[in-house]
Amino acid sequence: MKGPAEAPRPARPGAQGVVRGALVALAAFVMALLPSWLPTFSLTLLNLVAIAVMVVLGLYLLTGLARMTSFGQAAFMGVAAYATAILTTRHGVSPWLGLLAGLALSGGAALILGALTVRLKGHYLPLATIAWQMAITIVFGNLVAVTGGHTGISGVPPASVFGLELRSSGAFYYLAWGFVALALVGAHNLTRSRTGRALRALRGDAVAAASFGVNPPLLRLQVFVVAGLLAGAAGWLYAHFLRFVNPTPFSLDASITYLIMGVVGGIAALPGVLLGAGLITWLEDWLQGVLPLLLGRSGNYEVVALGLILVAILLFAPKGLWGFVERLLPPPRRAPPTGAGLTASRGGGAAGEALLEVAALTKHFGGLVAVRDLSFTVRRGEILGLIGPNGAGKSTSFNLITGAFAPTSGTVRYRGERVSGLAPYRVARKGLARTFQHPHLFNDMTVLDNVALGTYARTSAGMLASALRFDRAEERRAQAEAYKQLARVGLTEAAFARPSDLPLGKQRLLEIARALAADPEMLLLDEPAAGLRKAEKAELAALVRRLKADGVTVLFVDHDMELVMNLVDRVVVMHYGELLAEGTPAEVRANPKVIEAYLGSALEKRDAVRA
After folding, report:
1. Does residue 526 sit in the same domain as residue 411?
2. Which residue, of 184, 259, 324, 339, is most buried by count of CB atoms within 10 Å of its CB?
C-alpha cells in the first residue's frame, strides 16, 4: 500500500475546458439569433420544446438522479396553469403574481402528495402518481365553476416584460428559453454538489447513503417538490404562451409523453433532456400530419408511434440517445483538487473509556433469533474484533449498531447516548462510520465522488445554495478532503476512475476512504479482508494500525483468524447469535468453548506447524 501522496500541483486549465466553454457560448449566440431567422411556426414549436424541457428537467432530477418514477408531472403543470389563468382573467392580477401563485400551489401540491407517496417503494410509487394524476385531471374537467370544465379558460393575458407584451412567438421565445437557461444552470450546479451525490447514491443504494448522514425520505421529498416547481413554471409558460387552458394538456397522456421524452433522450444526462424534449416534440407534430395521410383516416396514431419508438429505445439504447452521442466525445479531464480539506470536528476523550456500549441486544426476524442478549463494550482507541462462524449474527449486530435494523430489545449507547432505534443517518452523524460486507459503491460516480459522499454530514449546503452555486467554497473543501482520504489509503491514482474498474482489494480500500471522509470517532469494518490476497491483507492490517495511531477506534469483523488475532486488542466471539467469549487474543485462543465451537483444530494444527 502506498503512503500518503504528496499534495497535487495545481493543474493548468486544459484546452478541453476552453473548447467546451466556446461551444456553449456559440450555442447561446445562435439561439439568440433564431427569432430573426425562423418562421413563426418553427418558433412556436421551439417555445413548446422549452416548456417541455422545464417539465423533463424535473424528471431528470426525480428519475434520472433519484430513480423515482412519476407519471404525475403534468398535473403540477396544470395546477400552476389554472392558478395563473384564473387570477389573471377573473381578478385582473398581473401574470407575474400569477407565477408566484402558480409556483406556490404546484409546490404545495407536490409537498402534500410527495409526503404521502415518496416513501413507497418499487412499482407502488409510479402507480400512486398515476392515481392522483388522473384524479387531478378529473377535477380540472368537472369543477366547471372554477376551471371552466372541459371548455377551459380563454383570454389569458400575455406576459409582459418592462411594459412590453410578449404576444408573438418570437417575443415569447426569449422568455421561455430564459427560463430554460436558468433551470439548466441550476440543475447542472445541483448535479455537481453534495445534494447531487446524495441523490445518485439514493438511486444506487439508500442504505449506504444513509450510513453517511443522508436522510433518504427528506431528500426524496425535497427533489419531488423541486420537480413539481419546475413543472409549475412550465404550466405558467404554457398558459401565457397559448393564452388558453383546458384539461387535455395536463392529462395522464401528457405526463407519459414527458416521461418518454426523458427516456428517449437520456433521463440521466442534462443534454439528454434537451435532445429528448426537442426530438419528441418535433416527432409528435410531424406524425400528426403524416400518419393520417398514410393511413387514410384521422386519429391519435402518433401515440402508438411514440410507444413503438420508446420500445425501440429501451431495447437498443437503454441509456437514451445521448448515450450514443456521449461515446463519440472525449472523456472529461479533471484535475486533482487542491487546497485544505474540511476541519476535523470530532470531540476527544480519554483513552480506554467506554465509547460504544451494547447491552442485552436482541433481534428477532419472525421466529428466527439472529442476535440474543448480546453485550460488549468498545473502548476508545482500541481495535475490537467481533468473530464467529457464518450465521453467528455478526453482520446483524453491525446493522443493529448502525441503525439499519431496529432491535427487538436491548440498547446501544455511543458516548453515553442511546442510539439504538435511531435512523441510520442519525447514527452516522453521531460519529460512527461503516463499511459493508459486500462493497456498496456507486459506479455512476468517480472514485473521488464516492469518497466525497462521506463528507455529506460534515457539509451543509442545501438544494437552493447548490443550485445558485453558493456552495463552491464548501464543495472545494469537500473534494480536497476526499482526495486526502484517497491518499491516506493509497488510491489517488484511481481518483477519476469508476469503482467497477478497481479490483476487489482496492474497492474495499475505497469504502474505508469514504468512511474516513466522514471524520468518524469509530469505524466499523464488516469483513474488509474477504476475498483479498495475502499481500492485500497485510496492507489492510497496516492501514488499520495507522488509523488506531491516528486516534480512530475500530470494530473489526472478519473470518481470517490469523489476521484478526494479530491485529486486534480484544476479541468478542459470537455463536448462534449469543456471546460465547470475550478477552484478549491470547485468552480467546485458549478458551475451550471457543476452540470447540469455532477455532477448532485449525488453530491447533497451525500452532503445531509453527512449533
Report:
1. yes
2. 259
How far is residue 158's CA from residue 172's CA, in Å, rounded to a whole number? 9
Q: Is residue 140 part of a domain?
A: yes
Residues 438 and 558 in one domain: yes
User: DSSP H helical segments within 266-348, as ranges?
Assistant: 270-295, 301-316, 321-328
Q: Which of 223, 250, 277 is the last residue before a domain boundary?
A: 250
**Count of domains observed in the chain:** 2
Buried b vs exposed e over 446-480: b needs ≥16 C-beta within 10 Å?
bbbbbbbbbbbbbbebebebbbebebeebbebbbb
- pLDDT for 131 beyond 80: yes
How many of the other CB atoms lie within 10 Å of CB of 144?
Answer: 10
Residue 233 sits in the same domain as residue 360: no
The domain spanning residue 398 has which CATH number? 3.40.50.300
- Which of 182, 216, 250 is at the close of a domain? 250
Residues 6+ apart with CB under 8 A from 143: 149
Residues 221 and 360 in one domain: no
Please identify which residue in the block is written with the cell numbers 405558467: 236
Which three cell numbers mark 458? 460534515
Cell of 219: 431528500
Residue 420 lies in a domain: yes
Q: Which helix (H) or strand (E) holds 14?
A: none
389, pLDDT greater than 90:
no
- In Å, the largest CA–CA distance within the chain is 97
The residue-averaged pLDDT of 275-290 equals 89
| Between 86 and 325, residue with greater pLDDT | 86
Q: CA 190, 196, 202 angle in degrees (round to 5)?
A: 150
Strands 553-557 and 383-387: parallel
> How is residue 64 annotated by DSSP?
I
% of the chain beyond a pLDDT of 90 = 68
For residue 197, the enclosing domain spans 50-250
Paired sense of beta strands 383-387 and 570-575, if any: parallel
CB atoms within 10 A of CB 115: 13
Instruction: For residue 344, give every residue at least 6 positions away whose Cβ sits within 8 Å of its Cβ, in sequence order, or none.
Output: 519
Residues 246 and 360 in one domain: no
Q: Which three cell numbers stand for residue 481?
A: 478532503
User: Does 185 fall in a domain?
Assistant: yes
